[in-house]
Specification:
alpha/beta, Oxidized Rhodanese, domain 1, Rossmann fold, five-stranded parallel β-sheet, 14 helices, about 40% helix
């Protein structure tokens, strides 16, 4: 029996088969092959007891590394299992070989099917928080993921119907992507008719050996590079693709892990780049709606392209981040409280300062005692 199969040969299989995606649930929900079943690596051996020996199982991970070992173990158990040697990334690259642009179909879906859940919420955030002003030049920052790619299409649509003049630049920073990741980003941009401007940096190499909070350091460095390049191009704002779920997750993370109440602001002034602002026009858009848009249009985007996950380590559930833990927590809370997400979001918009023990303003710490009416005598004299 063959031990592995190429992505391009799947359609030629004449017998019954099932693709098993062994990446963790977070990665699977971000994107996978149509019809694939998610059985995370840690559960695969237990689930194998229920496998049918008459079915060919195609085992898939991110890059075809971990899945090769899993397929071998399943064969030793007497099952018919082969490795998808290029992994999910190989599937994405194969899917992008067609030069047929999907831009028109995607734009139509935003206008029709996703008008209420995506387009209207995009416009609502821009209007409510005054994110775009006359004569702005905005760097729409594209990481290559589903959120930033959707944001780029929304800005294109907005530009067609703008009521006042403003400019946009679709900015992609390559912080040290692998050749495969770079190709996926460029091909997706081409298919979606997004004219990207790419510049390079060595951020991934700089943070590769940082042991404490490498993702935080990487994010800060990437934002700094984006600000600098955007300003060089004459922009006064950068737009990031953070969505509603990012906002509520940040609120909970600050409380549970940071011991403070804070949120991801819809816009803010840069402290290091004078005259520059950061805006988040997808502030009201739900992640599930973004995924629905992606799947409806049969689009596939990179998730995390850093060197910490580039060699299939994302198949290891032990690498789950704090943000992933919060996602799981919110999902569990929602089972008993359907309003939990909106309540978290609203909690930072309706803070009652009369019941707050302490707070910070412009870096200075204040307490409720400052405005508390003092009595002439205290209990202890």
């Amino acid at each position: 029996m063959i031990e592995e199969i190429s992505v391009k040969d799947i359609d030629a299989i004449k017998e019954k088969y099932q693709i098993i995606d062994i990446r963790d649930e977070i990665d699977f929900r971000y994107g996978s092959v149509a019809g694939a079943v998610n059985i995370p690596l840690k559960e695969i051996k237990i689930a194998a007891d229920r496998f049918n020996s008459d079915i060919l199982y195609i085992i898939m991970c991110k890059s075809g590394v971990v899945s090769a070992d899993v397929a071998q173990e399943l064969r030793e158990m007497g099952l018919r299992a082969v490795n998808l040697k290029e992994g999910y990334y190989g599937f994405m690259l194969e899917n992008l070989k067609s030069d047929r642009q999907k831009s028109a179909d995607v734009e139509k879906s935003i206008e029709k099917k996703f008008r209420k859940t995506i387009w209207s919420k995009f416009v609502a955030a821009i209007n409510k928080y005054q994110l775009i002003e006359e004569n702005d030049k905005i760097a729409v920052c594209i990481s290559g993921g589903k959120d930033s790619m959707l944001m780029a299409k929304l800005f294109q649509k907005l530009k067609k119907h703008n009521k006042f003049p403003f400019e946009i630049v679709f900015l992609v920073m390559d912080p040290g992507y692998s050749a495969e990741n770079r190709t996926i980003i460029e091909k997706n941009a081409k298919r979606l008719n997004i004219p990207i401007t790419v510049f390079e940096s060595t951020i991934f190499d700089s943070v590769l050996h940082i042991e404490k909070s490498p993702c935080y350091v990487c994010a800060r460095m990437r934002r700094g590079y984006l600000y600098n390049k955007a300003k060089e191009l004459g922009c006064n704002k950068i737009a990031l693709g953070h969505h509603y779920d990012d906002v509520i997750e940040t609120i909970l993370m600050g409380m549970l892990y940071g011991g403070q109440v804070q949120t991801m602001m819809p816009k803010l002034h840069s402290t290091n780049f004078e005259g520059m602002e950061l805006i988040r026009p997808m502030y009201f858009i739900r992640e599930d709606d973004i995924k629905h848009w992606r799947d409806y249009n049969d689009l596939h985007f990179i998730q995390c392209a850093c060197k910490f996950t580039d060699t299939c380590t994302s198949c290891n559930p032990d690498n789950a981040s704090k943000r992933q833990e919060i996602k799981n927590l919110i999902r569990e809370l929602k089972k008993t409280n359907a309003c939990v997400e909106s309540n978290i979001f609203n909690s930072v918009q309706t803070i009652n300062l009369d019941t707050v023990i302490g707070y910070k303003k412009n870096g200075a710490v204040h307490t409720f005692l400052e405005s508390y009416s003092k009595k002439e005598h205290t209990l202890f004299e």
